[in-house]
Sequence to fold (285 residues):
Amino acid sequence: MPWWRRVRHTPPPHGAEPAAPAGTPGDDAGQPYIRDAERRSLRRLLQRRSNLAYDLAQAELALQPENPWTERIAQLDAAIAQAEADLAALRPAPATVPRVQLPATPIAVEDVRPAEPAAVTLRAGEVTLRYQEEIDWAERGHQVALPQLARVAGDVAPLVPADLEASTRAALADHLRQGFSIVAEEALERAAAGEPPPAYTLADLTRPCPTCGGWQDPKGRCAACAELERQRQRIRAGLERLRAERDEQRQEMERYRERLPVIRRQLAETEADIAKLRAKGVEPA
Ligand SMILES: [Zn+2]
Fold:
């Protein structure tokens, strides 16, 4: 109720509402405020009856052996079983992953220039790779992190054994490019921190992953296993949501079942209160 109405209706205290004298024609003229309060009270009771009627229908539905909650729970059970099967099926496929470890040829850090533009030169055997900072002049003003390096000269292809199958050669070349790039970034980080350059070998860049047999990066991380783990995390997160929703559905159904006698009693009380007001001639309008 807006405050101005509340203020205007202050003279007859609201506490007087339930104790209003029995409705006689004379009251209508003499107690207009009470009549008004009773009309509001009736409107509230009618709204309450409508809410309780809805709850009663839901509670009676919840008591049925098959109902909207059990249907939803069955759907969720199926989705959970499917997600659990997907999770179990997420295993590395070692047969398809090549495992070639290159010899322990050292990767020399030939040159590091920390800034403006940052640059790193790496050499392994006859291969020399040069990396340089990718300068984004627009971003330059608020660049905080170390610069991103891009390979500007040289390639890893001569390091890949010629006797490998074409797809394996391509995969190994890709893996080596990523590995060298990580070494170049680390060389730059260490130079910026005043530390000695990293000392990796080609063997460090092609160590087989004990889990899947693929290649680890120079830091001992396996991209294939990391991707599998990301997929597992996604499925686990989905499973958690499905299980939580299933719990909610069960609890909601239980709540309705347990509340049924209370709803019936409240509905009866509300009906009785409505009948009393109606008997006094109160109408909601
Ligand atoms: Zn792996």
About this structure: Residues 92, 209, 211-212, 214, 222, 224-225 surround zinc ion (CB under 6 Å). The helical segments are 3-8, 25-30, 32-62, 68-89, 137-140, 166-192, 202-205, 223-279.
